[in-house]
Amino acid sequence: MSNTNNPAKPINLEGSAPLLSVFNMPASVRFYRDLLGFDLVQTDHKPERKDDFQWALLRLNGIELMLEPRGEKSCPKPITANAWLDRHDMSIYFGCKELDKVYTYLSSNGVDVQEPSTTSYGFKAIYVRDPDGFLLVFHWPESE
């Protein structure tokens, strides 16, 4: 469906915040907040549940992510990590100029990260899995 005959846009979007359902909320919060540097903006905070929220909004440089615990009854955790990774069909791409610096930082913090490489579309990229196996790609045009 095209709106090429109508120059006015019917919807004025101003951002996006993917919602990730995670098996271990505290581990995911620590990964995105403490390792990647996202700010914890809003939660259903209960003081007795440190980092174990029912919902969290994180933000870094205008990028927003939401986290929620994945219900074991509605979607049981796969038996093996490989079974879980094989099910993933979603990844998140972040624009990032300083890939060598990010690679050094992540690898020095024990994250399993591939060395920067050139993609088929002409970007330099590094690939990381978060605690739930979601693929995170940090990339930037190689020509810049």
UniProtKB/TrEMBL annotation:
GO molecular function: dioxygenase activity
Gene3D superfamilies, sorted: 2,3-Dihydroxybiphenyl 1,2-Dioxygenase, domain 1
Protein's name in the database: Catechol 2,3-dioxygenase
InterPro entries assigned to the protein according to its UniProt record, in alphabetical order: Glyas_Bleomycin-R_OHBP_Dase, Glyas_Fos-R_dOase_dom, VOC_core
One Pfam family of this chain: Glyoxalase
Domain VOC: 12-141
Keywords, in A-Z order: Dioxygenase, Oxidoreductase
Record-linked PROSITE patterns: VOC (PS51819)
